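Need a sequence for this fold. Nothing fancy.
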């Protein structure tokens, strides 16, 4: 089955569990992000340093994004392999391996942000080349430091596909957010209503994005293993 169609089917079949993961892991980090950014923007206004606020906003958003992916990836893999209590295993993966992914994320996101601020293109390239590291961390059951080389190789091999998926998911998220914001502002202009609608939409949309990238990473990993086995048989023959 096509990974995109498979992701849609998986999301609809397991939406309750995915939303539990999103509510427990994604929602608190989103609230923390917004609270922190508001404070940083306040300081930026006082000190006249808006660039610092923009850098911190991008850094924190990408860092949290890198971190939360492992829980959803583990849930998808556990369900695909028929493991018992996949939701519990997803939480366990997050809490047991979150710190190592967090440390990796700091280095990774710093490199991305510096590249974006300096010349834009290098930052985008770094973002794409190492984007699949959290997913491979789950699939290989190793630390991100042991998986980033595999992510780099996969990122090189599927650079255009990863970029396309990023553009596609960004467009989907933007379109749904636009529709949601238009619906809310039609009823009320309350900042609180708009803010919580945006948060709610992110909580709903992000699990699908994580499932989608997990499905593609799973497919590409399987293809890589088959290609290696074929090469091995050819050499033996």
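Here you go.
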């Amino acid at each position: 089955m096509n990974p995109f169609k498979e992701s849609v089917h998986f999301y609809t079949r397991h939406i309750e569990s995915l939303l539990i993961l999103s509510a427990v892991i994604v929602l608190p980090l989103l609230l923390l992000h917004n609270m922190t950014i508001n404070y940083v923007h306040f300081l930026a206004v006082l000190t006249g340093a808006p660039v610092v606020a923009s850098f911190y906003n991008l850094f924190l958003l990408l860092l949290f994004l890198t971190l939360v992916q492992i829980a959803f990836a583990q849930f998808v893999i556990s369900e695909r392999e028929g493991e018992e209590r996949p939701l519990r295993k997803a939480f366990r993966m997050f809490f047991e391996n979150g710190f190592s992914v967090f440390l990796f994320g700091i280095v990774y996101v710093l490199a991305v942000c510096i590249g974006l601020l300096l010349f834009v293109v290098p930052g985008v390239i770094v973002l794409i080349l190492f984007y699949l590291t959290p997913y491979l961390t789950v699939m290989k059951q190793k630390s991100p430091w042991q998986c980033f080389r595999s992510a780099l190789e996969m990122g090189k091999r599927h650079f255009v596909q990863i970029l396309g998926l990023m553009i596609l998911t960004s467009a989907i998220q933007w379109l749904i957010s636009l529709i949601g914001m238009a619906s809310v502002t039609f009823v009320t202009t309350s900042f609180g209503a708009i803010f919580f609608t945006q948060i709610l939409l992110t909580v709903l949309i992000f699990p699908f994005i994580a499932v989608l990238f997990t499905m593609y990473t799973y497919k590409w990993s399987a293809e890589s293993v088959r290609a290696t086995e074929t090469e091995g048989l050819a050499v033996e023959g």
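For context: Residues 191-236 form the longest helix (46 residues).
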